[in-house]
Design a protein that fits this description.
Elements: H1 27-33, E1 42-43, E2 49-50, H2 56-71, H3 87-103, E3 116-120, H4 127-136, E4 139-143
Parallel strand pairs: 3-4
Antiparallel strand pairs: 1-2
Helix pairs in contact: 1-2, 3-4
Length: about 150
């Protein structure tokens, strides 16, 4: 089957404007900061670099690279058989929360550790506290049953 290369937009406009993942993944730079990702990057049927998003190991390595590249997180891991959250979508939630908080803060997004967040069901990945702290300096308490 012959697939023509699709024109890909430079920006993912469905993501929040402050989301650091709006641009297409630069796999060269991601691999530079997380070499383990290289084994999962392949040309897809449209001749674009991508990973197999159905492969949890590939998604985990992509997440590690994104966290290192965008948020300077040098170590992040999730035990086997736990959910691997998509980083761009989780970052969107944090940015939308920031927008809601801005409405009650004279139009300014509140930043710093004075903002206290409770993540009920933080999970093994701890992704909301990581992104919320790195983006806005917020403090988090996470709870979970596992």
């Amino acid at each position: 089957m012959n697939h023509k290369k699709r024109e890909q937009p430079k920006e993912k406009t469905s993501l929040h404007p402050r989301n650091k993942n709006r641009e297409r993944y630069n796999f060269k730079e991601l691999i530079d900061c997380c070499p383990e990702l290289a084994q999962f990057v392949k040309q897809n049927i449209y001749n674009d670099e991508s990973i197999d998003f159905a492969n949890p190991k590939a998604v985990k390595e992509l997440n590690k690279a994104l966290l290192h590249y965008h948020y300077s997180i040098s170590f992040w891991d999730v035990p086997q058989n736990y959910l691997i959250p998509p980083i761009p979508g989780r970052a969107d939630y944090i940015h939308h929360i920031a927008d809601l908080l801005r409405q009650n803060n004279y139009g300014k997004i509140p930043t710093g550790s004075k903002i206290k967040c409770l993540d009920i069901g933080v999970g093994a990945n701890c992704i909301y506290p990581i992104i919320g702290n790195k983006e806005y300096g917020w403090s988090f308490i996470g709870s979970d049953i596992d």
